[in-house]
Please model this.
Amino acid sequence: MEGVYLRSIRLDGVISFGLPEIDDRYHIWRVPFLHQNSPIGEAVIDAVTSLLIETKTTKKKILEDRILGRSNDSPIRKKTCDIPKISNIRNSVGYGDSEILLQKTPSESIDLIFTSPPYYNARVEYADYTDYDNYLNKMRKIINQCHRVLTVSYST
Model:
């Protein structure tokens, strides 16, 4: 598929494919388009027929714009900080110590964090905290790491 599709949009040699991810909810495969090992879009493939779903695959113009660093929204160039980063992590659930998991997570790579922090000494399993200051310090570290890994959200 790689040679045929990328040749058909004349981007062979410029874009490669990353590792496919299976999206069981919609019976599709998501295959990242990579340029210099960075994700710039994705090919979406019907898992049943193995055909490319062109309406859900990143358009050639968008790929070209991302490769060349052009803004594809308007003739006025946006500031770099206004362009959201493309997340390369999909539907992941972390299990373990949040502080450690978040330290290993790339900056601005998470779109949503859902958490239920422990109440200080509410149950026996939360007795790990020696005092309230120790508990608050741990929560501050986790919140700071959450802020670091979250992507910037934009409203239109």
Notes: The chain has four helices and four strands.
